[in-house]
Amino acid sequence: MATPNANYATDLAATTIEHWSGSRLADAVHDGVPFIKWLKSGGREKPFSGGTVILEPVMYETNNTTQAQAYLAEVNNSIQALATNAQFSPALYTNTIVIGDVEEALNSGPEQRVDLWEGKVEQAINAFQVRMNADLFLDGSADPYAITGLAGMVDSSGTYGGINRSGNTYWQASEDPDLTPPAVLTEAAIRTLVNVCGRQNSTPTVHWTTMALHEAYEALIVPSLRKEMSNSRAGDLGISYLEYKDKPIFWDANCQPATWYTLNEKFIKWRPLKGWNFTMGEERRPTRQLAKQIICKFLGNLTSSNPRYHGKLTGRTAA
After folding, report:
1. 104 contacts 116 by C-beta, under 8 angstroms
2. For residue 8, pLDDT beyond 50
3. Over the range 55-83, which residues count as b (16 or more CB within 10 Å of their CB) and which as e?
4. pLDDT for position 232
């Protein structure tokens, strides 16, 4: 009679970890988080290598040495105050894949064990997706350990990245530049927001909103112009969308009610710590517990180097 392989379960755990190593687990998580996938598709993921804070250089002064001058006159070589640094605390997220010894024994066939491990990994991926997708639209105030999402980034008051917005207009996002909400969503309101957020030849590149406001905007469009776009970037997201001035408009169920975000992705970055971007640790066995566990982890944050290029409409309703 053949002797069962005592190392089979351990080998299977190691194989699972190896299978999901590198960027595979991160890619799987990102596939279910449209906002992160949108940033990655535009090359806005920028891992950091370490440190207690994530630093984002902030350009808030202009270079005053530019001048027209005589051919042999001296150039202006005065030192310029170019930037300060915004500081973002890395947010830690973990997820534990746990398989009990009894659970594994009851699924002792080779195919059953493979399915069990794969099911647990898929469960972990889904849990990460649900939590990250929700937190990306919050301001992080409800959970001090969470990332700072769009609600914290796109605001005109409070402190963001360690910089108080009070008195620092360069750090203030635009809020409802057309009028005081609540109000019906109009094309004029969107146009004003886009124009206010457009600075120095850099205009907004994307809009995120709720399903209700996405549908309200669709109703505003002349039927002959109403179409769903699928260019190479957004098409990869697997999401149909509308456009305003050739820029995509997406909706997400996690977006705050009655809110319309207008963003410039040039000034947004997804900053994971190298080696901690949804990666798996080694298999371990908890003390005094009949189980194996693998800890999945993420450490990083969503950052912006210049919130004044972003804006939002709030309190908006359909006509």
Report:
1. yes
2. no
3. ebebeeeeeeeeeeeeeeeeeeeeeeeee
4. 41
Angle between helices 110-135 and 34-41 (to 10 degrees): 80
242's CB contacts (< 8 A; 6+ apart) are 214, 217, 218, 221, 226, 227, 228, 229, 248, 249
Task: Give the pLDDT score at 201.
Answer: 76
Higher pLDDT: 234 or 284? It is 284
Q: Which two tokens stand for residue 276?
A: 């901690």
179 token code pair: 């009028």
Rounded CA separation 173/24 (Å): 35
The residue-averaged pLDDT of 89-106 equals 90
CATH topology of domain 8-59+85-167+178-314: phage-related protein like fold (3.90.1690)
Token code pair at residue 188: 């004029």
Name the β-bridge partners of 54: 88
The structure tokens 């972990």 sit at 124
- 302 close to 147: Cβ distance less than 8 angstroms: yes
Q: Is the pLDDT of residue 9 over 60?
A: no
In whole angstroms, what is the distance from residue 208 CA to residue 248 CA? 9
User: How far, in Å, CA of 205 to CA of 247, rounded?
Assistant: 6
At 238 the three-state DSSP class reads coil
The one-letter code for the residue type at 201 is N
Q: Which residue has the tokens 């898929």?
A: 122
Taking the model in full, what pTM does it have? 0.84
Mean pLDDT lowest for which of 201-205, 211-215, 303-307? 201-205
pLDDT band at 239 (very low <50, low <70, confident <90, very high): low
Tokens, residue 161 = 């990245």
Show the beta-strand stretches assigned E in 16-172: 54-59, 83-88, 91-100, 159-160, 163-164
Tokens of 33: 């988080």
